[in-house]
UniProtKB/TrEMBL annotation:
<comment type="pathway">
    <text>Cofactor biosynthesis; molybdopterin biosynthesis.</text>
</comment>
<keyword id="KW-0501">Molybdenum cofactor biosynthesis</keyword>
<keyword id="KW-0548">Nucleotidyltransferase</keyword>
<dbReference type="InterPro" id="IPR001453">
    <property type="entry name" value="MoaB/Mog_dom"/>
</dbReference>
<keyword id="KW-0547">Nucleotide-binding</keyword>
<dbReference type="InterPro" id="IPR008284">
    <property type="entry name" value="MoCF_biosynth_CS"/>
</dbReference>
<keyword id="KW-0808">Transferase</keyword>
<comment type="function">
    <text>Catalyzes the adenylation of molybdopterin as part of the biosynthesis of the molybdenum-cofactor.</text>
</comment>
<dbReference type="GO" id="GO:0061598">
    <property type="term" value="F:molybdopterin adenylyltransferase activity"/>
</dbReference>
<comment type="similarity">
    <text>Belongs to the MoaB/Mog family.</text>
</comment>
<keyword id="KW-0067">ATP-binding</keyword>
<protein>
    <recommendedName>
        <fullName>Molybdopterin adenylyltransferase</fullName>
        <ecNumber>2.7.7.75</ecNumber>
    </recommendedName>
</protein>
<dbReference type="InterPro" id="IPR051920">
    <property type="entry name" value="MPT_Adenylyltrnsfr/MoaC-Rel"/>
</dbReference>
<dbReference type="GO" id="GO:0006777">
    <property type="term" value="P:Mo-molybdopterin cofactor biosynthetic process"/>
</dbReference>
<dbReference type="Pfam" id="PF00994">
    <property type="entry name" value="MoCF_biosynth"/>
</dbReference>
<dbReference type="GO" id="GO:0005524">
    <property type="term" value="F:ATP binding"/>
</dbReference>
<dbReference type="InterPro" id="IPR036425">
    <property type="entry name" value="MoaB/Mog-like_dom_sf"/>
</dbReference>
């Protein structure tokens, strides 16, 4: 890491009516944070939010994490299924300038190795300004499975958007960056 580089800010957003109401503990957001701690060796700061399944609230929170907090990456969990209140992908699409459909395609393909209901998941990803937003499922085990397959592309994606340089523990996850 370059000495003058500030810690990368990464948003962790749990979308859950029950977790936001305190009915149960947010284990999904903590699973994202633990996974990122396993992956990253560069200094980073989590900007953590737990909110209800309300599209306007999700949109406003995503905008705030990117525009106000300066997160180069926002990873969401929850709200990606077929239930009526599962609107995280719609909120993500509403605030993004461009969508990155390959992320959702790859996550579903990986999840299908474990559960046939993976086809019901609507994970997606998109770009807002110079930030990447990635929607993950709500189950902690599925979070790790999905991040394991898409994260190798994330540091280079952030490089291409002139974001902070994310260094990884290559014994845990090997990011792809083209040879110079």
């Amino acid at each position: 890491m370059k000495a003058e580089q500030k810690p990368a800010k990464i948003g962790i957003l749990t979308v859950s009516d029950r977790a936001s109401a305190g009915i149960y503990e947010d284990i999904s957001g903590k699973a994202i944070e633990a996974t990122l701690n396993d992956y990253l060796t560069s200094t980073w700061q989590a900007v953590y939010r737990v909110i209800p399944d309300e599209q306007e609230v999700i949109e406003a929170t995503l905008c705030s994490l990117v525009d106000d907090e300066g997160c180069c990456l926002v990873v969401t969990t929850g709200g990606t299924g077929p239930a009526e209140r599962d609107v995280t992908p719609e909120a993500t699409e509403a605030v993004c300038d461009r969508m990155m459909p390959g992320f959702g395609e790859l996550m579903r393909a990986e999840s299908l190795k474990y559960v046939p209901t993976a086809i019901l998941s609507r994970q997606t990803a998109g770009l807002r300004g110079s930030s990447l937003i990635v929607n993950l499922p709500g189950k902690p085990k599925a979070i790790r499975q999905c991040l394991d397959v898409v994260f190798p592309a994330i540091p280079y994606c952030i490089d291409l958007m002139n974001g902070p340089y994310l260094e990884c523990d290559e014994a845990v996850i090997k990011p792809f960056r083209p040879k110079k």
